[in-house]
Specification:
By secondary structure, the protein is an alpha/beta fold. The chain has helices spanning 4-11, 15-23, 30-43, 49-56, 72-87, 101-113, 128-137, 160-173, 189-204, 220-225, 229-244, 256-268, 287-290, 302-317, and strands at 59-66, 91-96, 116-121, 140-144, 155-158, 179-183, 214-216, 250-253, 278-280, 297-299, 329-330, 333-335. Strands 2-1-3-4-5-11 form a six-stranded parallel sheet. A four-stranded parallel sheet has the order 7-6-8-9, with helices on both faces. Strands 10-12 form a two-stranded antiparallel ribbon.
């Protein structure tokens, strides 16, 4: 295996010079740098990142922690982060928390043991106090899809209230007044914010909000065990909606997978989408484009947010001025497709 000493010998420079070229830090003349880089390429030298981490207590590694990377939504987060990491010549390490607070903490601890200071975490289970403390210890820790006011500069988040509002307004503009909401069991702020937006839009339009048309999934354990939890969640919750006997002409689902599950349940019961019942999802993941009818949904710019979070993490560890004195808020937008029917005014 080619070592840093081999490169230094071939280039007739010190190992310290080679190290500065590899790390792109410190003063090295352009001519010398070009010579060392040429030798590195010729010899096929690859830096030992583990050794570097042991010496410096850190490594040029970007850590990603999400509940489940097999989920397309979280896969989008990983994609965005990895694109930036590659551009900045950072290696990537990933971990699943498996929808568990202890899993989040263990994943972060594992990354830290490998010298990783740049970590982006999608945390929905750890307490605010835990995450605030971690931010104090890790200068490059960034939260995605979570907002904590006291560490706002570390949060890259979406306005879910606006998302709930614009989906409701779209249905109201298509003359739907009896709107059911199928929401998630997740014990985090997102479902509450989206329902707040729903209620806000209904009340502003002069319509009474019927709590009996808001159904919360009861499939927590099933979802934690399987990759198709969202579909099962949608089917189960839509089944309860049908069995309730409540009148409704439209459904707002917590995410696209729940929307597809609800759509399947309706179709299995002879209810056409969108002619009999309209459906709106949330996230704009791939399934929303391939299902029939194609799903009208709220775009969650998760890849763009992940790229932003990765760059923010790097900037934080490089001590750039005023990095934390910014609001890292993204806005959702409606994606209009074919799952909403315009009702004739009665």
């Amino acid at each position: 295996m080619v070592t840093i000493k081999d490169v230094a010998r071939a280039a007739n420079v010190s190992t310290a010079t080679v190290s500065r070229v590899v790390r792109d830090k410190g003063q090295v003349g352009d001519k010398c740098r070009a010579k060392v880089q040429k030798i590195i390429k010729q010899l096929g030298y690859r830096p030992n990142t583990n050794a570097r981490a042991l010496v410096s207590k850190r490594s040029d590694t970007m850590g990603i922690v999400t509940p489940n990377l097999s989920d397309p939504f979280f896969g989008g987060i990983a994609q965005g982060i990895e694109e930036v990491a590659r551009q900045m010549q950072y290696k990537v390490m990933m971990g699943n928390s498996l929808h568990d607070e202890e899993g989040e903490i263990e994943a972060i601890a594992s990354l830290r043991e490998n010298g990783c200071e740049n970590i982006i975490i999608h945390s929905k289970y750890s307490s605010n106090e835990t995450l605030i403390k971690l931010c104090e210890e890790l200068p490059g820790l960034v939260l995605i899809n979570r907002f904590i006011p006291s560490i706002a500069g570390r949060c890259v988040w979406l306005d879910n209230t606006v998302g709930g509002r614009i989906s409701t307004e779209y249905l109201l503009n298509n003359n739907h007044k009896d709107i059911a909401v199928l929401t998630s069991y997740y014990n985090n702020q997102d479902p509450h914010d989206r329902i707040r937006g729903f209620k806000m839009a209904m009340e502003m339009a002069g319509h009474t909000v019927k709590d009996e048309l808001i159904f919360v999934s009861d499939l927590k354990q099933v979802i934690k065990q399987g990759q198709n939890g969202g579909n099962l969640e949608g089917e189960s919750t839509a089944k309860r909606l049908l069995e309730s006997g409540q009148k409704f002409t439209a459904i707002i689902a917590y995410n696209d997978h729940m929307a597809v599950g609800a759509m399947n349940l309706l179709l299995d019961n002879g209810i056409r989408v969108p002619e009999d019942v309209s459906i709106i999802g949330f996230d704009n993941v791939y399934v929303s484009m391939i299902v029939r009818p194609q799903l009208t949904t709220i775009n969650y710019p998760v890849v763009q947010m992940a790229k932003y979070a990765a760059q923010l993490s790097i900037d934080l560890t490089k001590d750039k001025e005023n990095v934390e004195n910014k609001t890292h808020l993204f806005m959702p937008e409606l994606i209009e497709r074919n799952s909403v029917y315009h009702l004739k005014e009665s």
